[in-house]
Amino acid sequence: MLNELDRPVDRRVLGIRVNGEDHQLLLPVHKTLLEVLREDLGLTGTKHGCELGECGTCTVLVEGEPHLSCLVLPVQLNGREVTTVEGLAAGSELSPLQRAFVDLGAAQCGYCTPGMLLAATALLRANPMPSNHEIREALAGNLCRCTGYSKIVEAVELAARA
Amino acid sequence: MLRLPRLRFLSPASPREAAAMARDGGATTMLVAGGTDLYPNLKRRQFAADTLVGLTQLRELHQVRGDAASGFELGAAVTLSVAARHPGLHTGYAEAAGLVSSPPLRNAGTIGGNLCVDTRCNYYNMTYEWRKAAGFCIKKDGDICLVAPGSPRCWALSSSDTAPVAIALGATVVLAAPDGERELPVAALYRDDGIDYLAKQPWEVVTALRLPPLDGVRTAYVKLRRRGSIDFPIAGCGVALRMDGDVVESARVVLSAVASHPVEAHAADQLLTGTRLDEETIAAAAEAAAKPAKPLDNADLSYVWRKKMVRVVVEQALRKAAARGDLS
Amino acid sequence: MPDLKIVGKAVAKPDAPAKVIGAAVYADDIVLPRMLHCKILRSPHPHARILSIDASAARRIRGVKAVITGEDLPIKFGILPVSQDERALEAEKVRYVGDPVAAVAAVDEETAAAALDAIRVEYEVLAPVMSIEEGLEQPKDERIHASRSLPANVHRLQSYEFGDLEAGWARARHQREDLFFFQGNTHLPMEQHSAVAQWVDGRLTLWSSTQVVHYVHRALARVLELPMTRIRVIGAVHGGGFGGKTDPFSHELVVAKLAMITGRPVKCTLTREEVFYAHRGRHPVLMWVRTGVDEDGRITAMHFRSALDGGGYGSYGAASVFYTGTLQTVTYDIPAYKFEGVRVFTNKPPCGPKRGHGTPQPRFALELHLDKIAQEIGIDPVELKRRNFVKPFTRAVNWLRITSCGLEECTDKVLAASGYATRARRRGRGMGFAVSAYMSGAGTAIYWNDMPHSEVQVKVDRTGVTAYCGAMDIGQGSDSVLAHIVAEELGVEPADVRLVTADTDSTPIDLGSYSSRVTFMAGNAALEAARKMRALLVSAVAERMGVSGDLDEIEVGGGRIGDFEFLEACELAETRWGALSTAGAYTPPRIGGPFKGSGVGPSPAYSYSAAVVDAEADERTGIVTVKRVWIAHDVGRAIDPLLVIGQVEGGVYMGLGEALMEEQTFRKGLHKWPSMLEYKSPTFLDTPEIETFLVETVDPEGPYGAKEAGQGPLLPVIPALNAALFDALGVWVDETPITPEKVLKALKDGRVGPKAFPAVPWPEPIVVAPPAPDDMRIGAELEAAFAQAGGDA
């Protein structure tokens, strides 16, 4: 690992579109989307639990699809748009899903919440009236240690009805 | 945070160019598609790569051609979730693609990547610091296999969920090299070794998976894992059956996660061919398939139990495939 | 109690909106100008002497600003006064793989991580001790910790006798003994530990993901040799603790030191693997229990032994041993009770408090043990347990004081909802029932003192009300509890109560969010402070209204006090009284008996829970699937039912995880799987529907009658699952977790579980005369009685 410091850094100017805004960044190409969002764009709403793709905490949307940002390199985005938790609300209006999470207590410590919201947002776009089981299937890659999942499922169901 | 090592990233304009870049770069240059297998492994320093050759920017690798009647050609960069929901695709293959890992990972992981997924072991899929404390292993940086210390070879586990059904179907892959392509049965893509587990040059690029016409074949994949998502297989079975009424015309049973390569259970195939498919023959076939399976203590849960479960997943896969008569 | 307007209302947490828009600032989100990043070098050996450390090469690396080792932080610390056995960076020896040895501060994480490779440490490897049995044997090389008085690698040794055991055994018509083992597991919070330190002009500020700003504050002062007035600890928004963030940690001390040396802010965020090494999780416990019952199945005597695998350091372990032995008596009436407990050091990450702290293990053992007794003597297990339930407002044989007790109601609710009594009996499907109890805050503080355990200040001025409390909201909703209580007393909505919490500069002491103490203790403190403020507001309003005499006539509620809007009332009071500031505090009264060690176990009130688990067990594969869980929890009073239900469901989920799949195991001295992939925690697809019932017994000690909800509900779920397995297949798995292989083995052998309890050099028991069962004296009255009787030990 020490010898890695002798390697040159492959820096590129990369364009990435996040939450509807375009950014041109000079980035080491080995920085993951997770790191770029948090450290270069100051968008710390995207959290991380393992950085190995094992917990779902870092979920963002790429062209509306849930992806694990800890395993995405911006150079591979190829122009696809990224949505983070900061991009869900319409101005200062919470989305129905965000509102449901607040009202039903689906966010306790809140650390898994951004990832859950994005995965659930994608689900509701593809399947506006998901069943309990379909919600569980769609969010199965997102771990939570606080809620036992019940309230999250209920919040998604509530938002679906909204 | 765990971070990737410093890497150069090359974006070739064609698969052949990719192969050339990989070949010219040598051992420290690696091909990458979705990255869902490679990036975690790189963060743990399981490879000494300093250059990546990207494949997902190649549009031709994202194509899906064909249909049930003529057979499908799936570009290697087609994602697992696209494959899992593609209409008309062989049921067992789509099923397997949809069981890989978890939903967000499947949106980036590719069908080519899953065929080539690195072999796994409890002693290997750990961070650099952990492996250093363990003394390293023969697959990376060490001299002995920590699971079977007396053995001269590596026993890391084949962990592809899609390979078994692909093999059972007699599917082929297309490999690109700098100067041409070749087609290879998926069955011939693997070697019985935890380190050199692919029978292709490291720089050959998988460009497509060709699935034969459906033609009444019934397929199924059953995956055993501890949890309902995220986990790799700890035993799995893909089957392809051709039936004439309730008599088996031909059968191919292939196991995942029991060895360093997907294991074709020829004894089970032979036992099933020409027989009436009922609970007795299913049980006998499962027994025959499980017999040579010798899982080691390098995955989740006890290997003794995993061995017992091979029978169960084979039976379940056979039953599932048999019941899919009207879906072809 | 008058009609409550706010307490009992389901209101969303005040911090939830920030969390759902990604605006909540957790420790790793903090970025300060010129901030450096710290990585910690950890021991690769489970047990070794450090012969030398050479950091010179690391210091020369470009971008590295400082490297420290054990000699830079030599002062020992530890959460308990009796276990000051840790150093922020070890200098003499290392005691588990992951033990911190050196730390680097560099311009970025990549440089810091690479620099670790350049630090040369020479170790003399020592034979590791990796199990309870090995911990009790003479060590091959040397003890893990030196000791003046204890043998082998023993850390703690206890023996107590309460009541007349001889008579108890003599009365027993039937006796049975059983062995159980509860495997170690860990908290696995989604948020990795993280801390940021800043040193400016002789003052240190630390932001940390912690449950205990006050204990971290004390540890920083001690180790860094700084006065507490020069240190400020701020609890960052917290991403999950469950007991895993209740110790002061190496990385917190290290970033502080590095900030002091470099003059720049320093951040350290642990990787997931490091979180496994920080641990402080569930002790693996081996248990032996022998119980005597009369012809009706009523317990006449019980002897309980527990052996704890403590890991490399003390942490809360001295208390953990007590906890494995004290709460047996607050669920079941045990007239004569003997408890022996031992904790050994082993060369693994230190164990400490995880949700339930030392009580899930004996709860597991006790519930299954009683099930087996019932089966043996032919009494229905539910009936047998009922016959032995404690009664409310009684004193247990070990002096623990039971106030409100909803065991009967909880039991009735889950039995009715699940249809347990009339369940279809078929092989492969079964239901299990279990009950439990838990403390609402420990009756004694971590460090001996006579000061309050929780203090709340309430400030009012013309802009409204603010409440200050040191309590940390770890996701459980303690902020909401404070807001609810203050809102109730002052007649406003919770959203109108501004909160300042978990900042040692501005908030008064609260010992921390552990031991389920916050609702109870901070709640009581808030109640006192709010009532005092209410009196000031009401009297100012009364004066203006010309009302004298009975001030209760002045209505408070709905945003009004008397004839005035709340803010108008604030102005009246500010005019009348000047600066408005009130304070409240809560100190648990003396409850424990007159004997050494009586401080652990007593609580001002106990919550109670009952659970039924419905599970399928496949006898061919051994796979157990939980179909549904019914849980009833006596919370005393649900201050905010939304949050209480969230805690109950979360506790059930965590209990299921421990019962089915969570386990920490070690191989060749290494943690076998320090990753979120291999350490299995249940996903959406592994967690069943949970049906929750809240029972409100309105405890006289709790604020509005409230008791705890954060830990109790986890406890009955685990034995209930194993009981369901027995119901389904007629076999016992007397250990956790249940794996398919264990089920198959149990089908072959009838039972899977420990075979023996090792020989332990138990000390002579402390023999304690029990109280009268109706002796409800506490506090000064109790102290006086003991003084009169000749003082306690």
Helix content of chain B: 25-40%
Largest interface: A-C, 58 and 64 residues
> What order do the SSEs of chain B take from the amino end to the carboxyl end, as H and E?
EHEHEEEHHHHHHEEEEEEEHHH
Radius of gyration of chain C: 27 Å
**Percentage of β-strand residues of chain C:** 15-25%
Secondary-structure arrangement, i.e. CATH architecture of the largest domain in chain C: 2-Layer Sandwich
Residues in helix, % of chain C: 25-40%
Q: Can you count the beta strands of chain C?
A: 33
Kindly provide the radius of gyration of chain B, computed on alpha-carbon positions and rounded to a whole number of angstroms.
19 Å
Number of helices of chain C: 19
The largest sheet of chain B is:
5 strands, antiparallel
CATH structural fold name of the largest domain in chain C: Aldehyde Oxidoreductase, domain 4
Q: Report mean pLDDT of chain C, rounded to a whole number.
A: 96
Described by the principal axes of the CA atoms, the overall outline of chain C is: globular
Structural class of chain C: alpha+beta
Strand line-up in the sheet with most strands of chain C: 3-5-1-12-9-10-11
Structural class determined from secondary elements of chain B: alpha+beta
Overall average residue pLDDT of chain B: 96
Q: Give the termini separation of chain C.
A: 40 Å
- Strand-residue proportion of chain B: 15-25%
Describe the structure.
- The complex is a heterotrimer of chains A (about 160), B (about 325) and C (about 800).
- Helices cover about 30% and strands about 15% of the residues of chain A.
- With about 160 residues, chain A is of the alpha+beta class.
- In chain A, helix 2 crosses helix 5.
- The longest helix of chain A has 14 residues.
- The model of chain B has no long low-confidence stretch (mean pLDDT about 95).
- By secondary structure, chain B is α+β, with helices and mostly antiparallel strands.
- In chain B, strand 6 and strand 7 form a beta hairpin.
- Chain B is globular, with a radius of gyration of 19 Å.
- Chain C folds into 3 domains: about 180 residues, Alpha-Beta Complex (Aldehyde Oxidoreductase, domain 3); about 325 residues, Aldehyde oxidase/xanthine dehydrogenase, molybdopterin binding domain (Aldehyde Oxidoreductase, domain 4, 2-Layer Sandwich); about 140 residues, Aldehyde Oxidoreductase, domain 4 (2-Layer Sandwich).
- The interface between B and C is medium-sized, with 27 and 35 residues.
